[in-house]
Amino acid sequence: MTIPMNFRNSFLLGASLIALIVTGCSNGNKLPNPSGTLEATEVDVASTIAGRILEARPGLGAVVNQGDTLVVMDVDLIRLQRAQTESGLQSIAAQRSVATENIASAERNVEWLKVQLKRLQDLLAQGSAQQQQVDELAAKKDIAVLQVETTRRQLAVLDAESNKLHAAMATFDRQLQEGILVSPIAGTVLLRGAEPGEVASPGKVLYRLADLRNLELRFYLGSTDLGKVQLGKQLQVLIDAFSVKTFTGEVIWISSEAEFTPKNAQTRDARLQQVYAVKLRISNSDGSLKIGMPAEVKI
């Protein structure tokens, strides 16, 4: 049976209009399901001193507690330098002791000369002494005063040198502490860049750690959808690797400033949209979730 052309065109046009209306209603009522990838806060542990690595204890993937030893470095040279500095401090302490005694002796001598000079000046006034005697004693007194001042300046120099060496001692003590690198967090070893026998340089990352007990998911919402999430709200999360299992994430951060959609968006128009970043915390107590897994949030 042949369908008339006019009837067929009218039917197709009507069907298209109905589909457009249904699609429009569906899009208008559909809530956004943004996606992202699971992340973790990573901590890099680097050496602050140069030295040979004696031990690199945990291996890749190992779980460590906060305060566990990661790296032990050879600090014998620092220990020798500290001992040398300590010897210098002891020498200065001995010199300072002698200088202090010399100052006390010189001050006593000055006081005695002052008394003798006053007595001689009185005798000069009575005609029982000569001016030359008074002048000679006054010169001796001035020399004794100068000796006191000189010794005090020497004492100040010794004190300055002592302070310098004390600062060096504190530096060596800190470097000795830095010779043992401990884990700043409880987490899992993601990267191990240290091997016994290698020479570590300051700033070189030796271990990278992350706390995988809680992972984070960052996604983006437009301004019209931002009111659907609040801090502390629990949201359902779908992980691509788990088709039948759902997870729960808690909203822990909402950006206060709009930004352009990240550059990895599929289309140019999408990249030009203004969005707000939202971050979820997802419990991973069983360790089944991994960094980088794709995930979708049901709003």
Explain how this protein is built.
- The chain is built from 4 helices and 15 strands.
- A 6-stranded antiparallel β-barrel has the order 1-10-14-12-11-15. Strands 2-9-7-4 form a 4-stranded antiparallel beta sheet, with no helix packed on it.
- The chain is α+β, with helices and mostly antiparallel strands and 299 residues long.
- It folds into 3 domains: 32-41 and 213-298, Elongation Factor Tu (Ef-tu), domain 3 (Beta Barrel), CATH 2.40.30.170; 43-74 and 180-209, RNA polymerase II/Efflux pump adaptor protein, barrel-sandwich hybrid domain (OB fold (Dihydrolipoamide Acetyltransferase, E2P), Beta Barrel), CATH 2.40.50.100; 76-177.
- The chain has helices spanning 5-29, 76-126, 131-178, 268-271, and strands at residues 35-39, 42-46, 51-56, 63-64, 69-73, 180-182, 187-192, 199-200, 205-210, 214-222, 234-239, 246-254, 259-260, 274-283, 294-298.
- 43% of the residues lie in helices and 27% in strands.
Overall pLDDT confidence: 87
The termini sit apart by: 51 Å
- Indicate the overall shape: elongated
Question: How many domains in all?
Answer: 3
List the helices and strands and how they pair.
Blueprint: H1 5-29, E1 35-39, E2 42-46, E3 51-56, E4 63-64, E5 69-73, H2 76-126, H3 131-178, E6 180-182, E7 187-192, E8 199-200, E9 205-210, E10 214-222, E11 234-239, E12 246-254, E13 259-260, H4 268-271, E14 274-283, E15 294-298
Antiparallel strand pairs: 1-10, 1-15, 2-9, 3-5, 3-8, 4-7, 5-6, 7-9, 10-14, 11-12, 11-15, 12-14, 13-14
